[in-house]
Amino acid sequence: MRFINPKTDYAFKKIFGSEQSHDVLISFLNAILYDGDRVIKDLEILNPYLAPRIRGVKATYLDVKAKLDNDTTVIIEMQVLNIEGFEKRILYNAAKAYSTQLGVGQDYTLLDPVIALTITDFEMFPEMTQLISRFILKEKDFLIDYPIYDIELVFVELPKFHKEVAGLKTLADKWLYFLKCARQLDVVPESMNLIPEIKQAFEMANEVNLTLEQIEDMEMQEMFIHDQRNAIKKALNQGRQEGREEGKLAAKLEMAKQLLDVLDDAAISQASGLNMTEIAQLRKYS
């Protein structure tokens, strides 16, 4: 068997955010958010992803969003590139999901909690060793929790996960191994095949269940991710070597040039840090 890479945009949303993903998502969220306890017994996937054709990398998709049986909204995102402003975007999306619950004149007591769960394929917090980190509002000096525990940011850093099949003990271990290693496998590990939801996830990721065009599209995404990682690395190295404002601008321009044919201007601006006018000029003379 050959499996698609669950870390690509298309595959992640197909596995965790489609109409067939109900039980898979419940198991995954219980594993990551609640240490494998069956806290979540039901949920509704908001705007289910129907896995349309994805020809061209410019296509964009919503994050996976779900409403839990306790009315908590969970936003789930897989992020493979450490782009500029990413940390702010996570906070903005969580705050937006929280604030837009209310209509004009509605009471604040109607607000329900929001959890932003972000899985990264890079280290977000190199100063910390833990794999999963959770952020909430606390008093700055005494670290006392804010009375309302309504917005939580949860991060899972895949590069910090190093377990092999024999060492997979918890449900979270097995889900994270699936995310990180499914692409390299040619058979489902026996211990993971015994869990119905993970077995289903592998079935959804099996290339035999996809069209040739869908497989080609995902390979294009993987190539795109690889190219952009190299572009970011080159830009950072150039900025460090020159150590001047001119060097920083040149690095941003180099990154933006790499993205002109695959992203729209707003996405390029977010990734490179250039403003829309600078990107328009770059398009004009490139």
> Radius of gyration in whole Å, from Cα?
20 Å
Largest sheet: 6 strands, mixed
- The domain tally reads 2
Order of helices and strands: HHEEEHEEEHHHHHHH
Structural class: alpha/beta
Spatial order of strands in the largest sheet: 1-2-3-4-6-5
Low-confidence stretches: 51-61
Structure description:
The protein has 286 residues and is of the alpha/beta class. It folds into 2 domains: 9-209, no CATH class; 212-285, no CATH class. The protein has 10 helices and 6 strands, in the order H-H-E-E-E-H-E-E-E-H-H-H-H-H-H-H. It has helices at residues 9-17, 22-33, 86-99, 171-181, 190-193, 196-205, 212-242, 245-259, 265-272, 276-285, and strands at residues 43-46, 64-68, 73-79, 114-120, 132-135, 151-157. Strands 1-2-3-4-6-5 form a 6-stranded mixed sheet, sandwiched between helices.
Summarize the structure.
The chain folds into two domains: about 10-210, no CATH class; about 210-285, no CATH class. About 45% of the residues lie in helices and about 10% in strands.
What structural keywords apply?
286 residues, alpha/beta, 2 domains, six-stranded mixed sheet
List the helices and strands and how they pair.
Elements: H1 9-17, H2 22-33, E1 43-46, E2 64-68, E3 73-79, H3 86-99, E4 114-120, E5 132-135, E6 151-157, H4 171-181, H5 190-193, H6 196-205, H7 212-242, H8 245-259, H9 265-272, H10 276-285
